[in-house]
Design brief:
Elements (H helix, E strand, L loop, with lengths): L2 H17 L1 H20 L6 H10 L5 E2 H7 L4 H13 L3 E5 L7 E5 L1 H25 L1 H14 L10
Antiparallel strand pairs: 1-3, 2-3
Amino acid sequence: MTPHLEESMAGTERDTARSCNNLALRKAARYLGATYDRALAPTGLRATQFSILQKLSTHEQITISSLAEMIAMDRTTLASNLKPLAREGLVTVEPSPTDRRARIVTLTPDGLARMTAALPYWRTVQSEFEESFGGDKAAQLRAALEDILDTGFHPWAE
């Protein structure tokens, strides 16, 4: 490869990396996710597990498909995330009595207790982030991220 071509490609790579929405989002998600994981560690929950338990706490029972849609996660990944929660007795996953193809997820009393115990840790890191980043900016960020879900893409369409 000629030095001129290498220089041109390096410039393109820099421009692509600087303007890549996916890379910027993933970097920020890994950074913030690790921050929440660290804060929640004393409870034995990771941030994703906490989010699942929190969402389940607002529903008596829900299908895996519906829960996956609510938290913007594909069903297979959600099912994998539910396995350790089920092993610990924090959720149950059972076939639907009305549709054997569907599986119903239910938060157990132990799951609710664990999620409740994790809330103060979550609130602390949430407050620290908003103090550092700015409360208004954090609210705008959440709104912008929610708007992404309305862009018309169908990443998990079958």
